[in-house]
Design a protein that fits this description.
This protein is α+β, with helices and mostly antiparallel strands and 121 residues long. Helix content is 16%, strand content 36%.
């Protein structure tokens, strides 16, 4: 209760974030070396590889009798995730990753809300 109250005082609202689909950001490429337009997409982790060393070690340890050998995490405390963004330079296609604060709902949207063409009174 005390922590919840502190969050309200500080003005942290972790509900909904609207983020532009394109933004100007610094590009460190030799051809650019300045602020250019970047296309923004939400970062998504790739498919886990079966031949990665950690996965091979885990599978070898799990083999045979003896049940679950490593701890399985159950005490999930966080209700939000930090959002990772992938910014791609429009000029040279260089990609850089950045992050924003925690939020429950994240949306990539164009600047300003689209108004309907025929308003209903």
């Amino acid at each position: 209760l005390k922590l919840q109250f502190l969050y309200l005082i500080e003005g942290h609202s972790h509900t909904m974030v609207n983020y532009p689909k394109s933004k100007k950001s610094y590009c460190a490429d030799k051809s650019c070396n300045t602020h250019t337009n970047h296309k923004v997409v939400q970062y998504k982790a790739g498919k886990a590889s079966l031949c990665a060393q950690g996965k091979r070690r885990y599978d070898a340890k799990q083999k045979g009798f003896g049940g679950q050998t490593k701890p399985v995490f159950h005490k999930k405390a966080k209700t939000t995730k930090k959002i990772s963004l992938k910014l791609q330079c429009v000029k040279c296609k260089r990609v850089k990753l950045t992050h924003i604060k925690r939020c429950k709902h994240f949306e990539l949207a164009d600047q300003g809300r689209k108004k309907s063409k025929d308003p209903t009174w």
